[in-house]
């Protein structure tokens, strides 16, 4: 048996597993550190170590849907987990992250935070009381950063509701003297810009789509080194890179989904490697947009034969 030299050492043993196990492995959730994700994490790290002062800096992490915002936040949370000190009996949670409530309502922010703190309680108390409980818990648990994901959901509210909500989160961050991080789409950026005071406070970090460059090669090469296929794949060529970008419009979620599909197909077909031809199959699982284009191209190709 070959020892799968094309794979990174830690991943070689996976290639020897059976088909079903390898397919499950390919489809499992994973984290890959891309250059952009690394830069975003470094920025978050920097803000976490920011000393408490009256006016704390805030950050908006924005980019298209599926670009990887939530993945970055989850990774940051894993890097800074909550911990329980048995000696003192005190739990601490340096980074508190919540998802934007379905509606921009003040009460729901406190509800979301209490759930994030592991202390969901009855939501029958007055808004004022909920806020007090929330602030006191955040302080006693040593929260040093607040993150609100999916902030674009703010836009379902009326203009007035949006302004009230933005003030609520701003005052929360002010009271606690911690940096506030919001993540969302371009629409979120527009919403924040409507409040000059907030726009002034927020620094923006744009997560961009992948383009035809060195970073895409790096991503594909990293995938080639971990996907449990038994033969070396042809992922470093310009043709493959261009094909992947054309089929996915450079969207992170689509790239991962596409690579997962061709890798699974490589296992099922017995080809055991990914080549430029892997991307021409009729059964590629692509998002609707790129799928339409892919089929049109296929039809044109067949008509011209
Ligand atoms: N660094 C990464 N490592 C591995 N997979 C990733 C990474 N970034 C993104 N993905 C893939 O892309 C998918 C979408 O990522 P994510 O949920 O973070 O996007 P998002 O920007 O939060 O999108 P939305 O605005 O719709 O919430 C993930 O489920 C995962 O499959
Ligand atoms: Mg998300």
TrEMBL record:
InterPro entries: ExeA_AAA_ATPase_DNA-bind (IPR052026), P-loop_NTPase (IPR027417), TniB (IPR008868). Transmembrane segments: none annotated. It comes from the Bacteria. PANTHER family: GENERAL SECRETION PATHWAY PROTEIN A-RELATED, PHOSPHORIBULOKINASE _ URIDINE KINASE FAMILY. This is TniB. It comes from Mesorhizobium metallidurans STM 2683.
């Amino acid at each position: 048996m070959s020892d799968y030299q094309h794979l990174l050492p830690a991943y070689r043993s996976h290639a020897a597993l059976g088909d079903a196990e390898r397919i499950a492995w390919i489809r499992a959730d994973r984290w890959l550190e891309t250059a952009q994700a690394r830069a975003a994490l470094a920025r978050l790290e920097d803000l976490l170590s920011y000393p408490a002062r009256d006016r704390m800096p805030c950050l908006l992490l924005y980019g298209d849907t599926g670009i990887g915002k939530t993945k970055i936040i989850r990774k940051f949370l894993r890097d800074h987990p909550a911990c329980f000190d048995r000696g003192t009996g005190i739990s601490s949670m340096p980074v508190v992250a919540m998802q934007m409530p379905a509606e921009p309502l003040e009460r729901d922010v406190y509800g979301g935070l209490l759930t994030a703190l592991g202390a969901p309680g009855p939501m029958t108390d007055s808004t004022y009381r909920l806020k007090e409980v929330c602030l006191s818990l955040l302080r006693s648990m040593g929260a040093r950063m607040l993150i609100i994901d999916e902030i674009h959901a703010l836009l379902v509210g009326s203009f007035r509701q949006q302004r009230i909500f933005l003030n609520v989160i701003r005052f929360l961050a002010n009271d606690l003297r911690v940096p506030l991080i919001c993540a969302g789409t371009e629409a979120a950026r527009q919403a924040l810009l409507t409040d000059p005071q907030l726009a002034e406070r927020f620094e923006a970090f744009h997560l961009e789509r992948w383009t035809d460059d060195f970073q895409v090669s790096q991503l594909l090469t990293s995938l080639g080194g971990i996907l449990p296929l038994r033969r070396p794949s042809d992922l470093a060529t310009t043709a493959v890179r261009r094909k992947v970008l054309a089929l996915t419009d450079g969207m992170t979620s689509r790239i991962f989904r596409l690579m997962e599909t061709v890798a699974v197909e490589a296992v099922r077909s017995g080809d055991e490697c990914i080549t430029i031809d892997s991307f021409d199959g009729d059964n590629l699982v692509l998002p609707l947009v790129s799928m339409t284009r892919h089929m049109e191209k296929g039809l044109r190709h067949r008509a011209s034969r």
